[in-house]
């Protein structure tokens, strides 16, 4: 005999906030506006930390940029509708595409490597890029696109997780497998403000929940390590 179930459990951010407060002994009927403001700030600070701790697979997307002949530097994709801010955290993989549809991976280089190139205006098929992580980051290609060998740049990037807001029953932009880590992390951060005597105990639980989710949040692929078998000569 089988039973039909649902897959609809996706609590609003406000519900998670109330749950987190209950974990530190603050009953829902005692929650004030200042409690909710603390929760909004703590949530967004936690999401900022998560962006620094690793690749959040649910926030990875593909950006396409048309290449312009003779132009080496390109603004990294803008994040909001007005185009006034960027939401790119890091670039994972980049490749160029020709008119005939052939893709070729290009490799990242450091600022020092780019500075060492004697002819930064040399045109050809781009083989490398320098990602300058400024407030308004840029991506610089080398060789500079010549307008014929490669016409499009594509890159997978980790974007910023969307802001957490409490209005209108909004949900935090997290998948099901991260709900516990989110709730435990928020509980710990709120305890630092409203129940500091419990904070140290709750930090361990928050760290454990994060680690469990982070271990699961990877691409399940094989890794191959091959030794070099070429000869060595003096």
Structural account:
This protein has helices at residues 13-23, 33-53, 111-116, 179-194, 196-216; strands at 60-66, 73-75, 88-97, 103-109, 123-124, 128-132, 138-142, 144-145, 152-159. It is of the alpha+beta class and 234 residues long. α2 packs across α4 and α4 runs antiparallel to α5. The chain is built from five helices and nine strands; from the N terminus they run ααββββαβββββαα. The strands form two sheets. A seven-stranded mixed beta sheet has the order 1-9-3-4-6-7-2. Strands 5-8 form a two-stranded parallel sheet.
* Global Rg: 23 Å
**Count of helical regions:** 5
Task: Outline the low-pLDDT stretches.
Answer: none
Give the strand line-up of the largest sheet.
Answer: 1-9-3-4-6-7-2
Average predicted confidence as pLDDT? 92
Biggest sheet record: 7 strands, mixed
> What percentage of residues falls in helices of 4 or more residues?
25-40%
Total strands: the figure is 9
Order of helices and strands: HHEEEEHEEEEEHH
Alpha-carbon distance between the two ends? 73 Å
Task: Label the overall shape.
Answer: elongated
Proportion of strand residues: 15-25%
Alpha-beta classification? alpha+beta
């Amino acid at each position: 005999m089988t039973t039909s179930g649902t897959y609809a459990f996706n609590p609003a951010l406000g519900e998670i906030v109330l749950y987190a407060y209950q974990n530190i002994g603050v009953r829902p009927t005692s929650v004030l506006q200042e409690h909710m403001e603390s929760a909004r700030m703590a949530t967004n600070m936690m999401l900022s930390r998560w962006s620094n701790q690793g690749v959040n697979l649910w926030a990875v997307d593909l950006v396409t940029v048309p290449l312009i002949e003779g132009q080496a530097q390109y603004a990294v994709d803008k994040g909001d509708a007005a185009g006034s801010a960027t939401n790119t955290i890091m670039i994972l993989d980049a490749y160029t595409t020709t008119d005939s549809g052939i893709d070729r991976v290009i490799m990242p280089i450091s600022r020092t490597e780019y500075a060492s190139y004697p002819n930064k205006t040399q045109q050809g098929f781009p083989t490398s890029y320098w990602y300058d992580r400024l407030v308004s980051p840029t991506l610089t290609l080398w060789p500079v696109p010549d307008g014929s060998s490669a016409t499009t740049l594509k890159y997978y990037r980790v974007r910023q997780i969307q802001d957490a807001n409490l209005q209108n029953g909004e949900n935090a932009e997290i998948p099901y497998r991260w709900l516990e880590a989110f709730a435990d992390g928020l509980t710990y951060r709120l305890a630092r403000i409203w129940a500091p005597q419990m904070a140290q105990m709750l930090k361990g639980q928050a760290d454990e929940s994060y680690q469990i989710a982070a271990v699961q949040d990877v691409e399940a692929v094989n890794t191959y390590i091959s030794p070099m078998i070429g000869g060595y000569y003096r």
